[in-house]
Every structure is written in structure tokens, then in C-alpha cells.
Design goal:
Shape: globular
Number of helices: 9
Number of strands: 2
Low-confidence stretches: none
Strand order of the largest sheet: 1-2
Protein name: Polymerase
Order of helices and strands: HHHHHHHHEEH
Structural class: mainly alpha
Keywords: Membrane, Transmembrane, Transmembrane helix
Length: 246
Amino acid sequence: MSRAFERSALARNALVAGVAVLLGLAGGAAVAFAPPWIAFAALLALVPVYLVLRSTDVGLASSVLVATILPFGTLPFKAGVTPNFLELALLALLAIWLLRLLINPDQSLELTPIGLPLIGFLGVTLFSFILGSNASPDSLTLHNYFKFLLAVLFFFSVVNCVRTPVQANWLMRALLIGGALSALIGLLLFAMPDALAERILVALGPIGYPTSGRVLRYVADDPSGVERAIGLAVDPNSFGGMLALV
């Protein structure tokens, strides 16, 4: 038991150190090739990354908070495929859970009654994806399928990381807090003058938010009509759907 615990702690610390090194390299590259604020952002990112990798509870809460408050935020640089914050949170949670499962013999795998059918469904989607793309998907299609996989695999992360009523309450609190903060942001933007609300939303352009076109949304797309609440969800329908679920 003690040996397994030591292996678990060693692997976890190695993972934390590896991510810290990668962020350090990214920060150094940002200093050399990008605006200085990106380097400071990379440095600040070490704190939440460390917490997520130390605890699956923090990883779950982070995923829920990002999904409800800042669902379309991306890393502040352009690449062939730029991952968003939600993808990174889900991927970190999945990685730390799988790592614990592999190195801790006392950690059991929970599938639940729908786990196997869900795995079968993923197999069907993978077959369809390969067949539909002629085994050579473009980067956008591959990225979209990867996001789909992360969303489905989040089910397994939840059922394997939420084992006690305390953990379930923690996750529900995070969901309610995220929904409440998102609703508050939506109300504040809705109550502001349109020009000010648009400037605030456009300021989020460096992290992937739209900077032109339909930044604010209106009923029947009529700027002289009634504005629709969007929060930081870009689209009013997805914003309303998320709040309805919460």
C-alpha cells in the first residue's frame, strides 16, 4: 500500500513538474515573441494548473466553472488548432484521473450501467469519423471530433471522481456558483449601454471572442430592437440553455 502511494505521489509530482516546465517554456517564448502580458498570464496559470493536477475535485469544479462562465475562451495565441480553456480543463481532469487509475491498485473503474453502451457509441462515432473523412480529416474536423470525445469522456471522469456525497455537493455548488455568476454577468451586460457592453466583449478578443460582426445580439437581428442577454456565451440560445439546465 505504501509503495503504491509513493508511486502515486511521485507520478503526480512528475506530472505537475512537467506541466510547469511546459508553461515556463511557453512563457519564455511569449516574452521573446509576444506581448509581455502573455508571459504574466502564463505565470499566473501555474496556480490553477497545480491545483487541478493535485485534486480531481478542483479539476471538476474548474471544468464546471469554465463551462458556465467562459465557455468559448481560448489560449491567447493563434496556432493550427487553438485549444480553449474548457478543453484544457477537461483534458487535465481526464489525465489526472487516468493516471491515478493506472498507478493506484486500490482505485476501481466505475462504468455504471450505461458505461459500456456509451463506449460502444464512441466506437461507432470513431468508425463514422474515419469513414466520413476518408481517414484524412482536416485540422478543424479533427479538433471538433476531439472536443466531442472530451465531452463524452467527461461522463466517465465524473462517475469515477465523484464517489461521496461531499464530492457531489462540492460539484453542485460549483455548478450553482458558475450559473449564478454567468447570469449576473449577463444581466450586467444587458443593463449597460450597448456601446459599453460591446467594448467589454470586444476586449475579450485576445482569448477567442468575436471582435466584429454580431458581438451583441438582438431580437430578429434588429439593433434598434430588443437586446438579447448573452453573458460571455457568445450566443443567446446557448446562454439561455445553460441557465435553464443549471
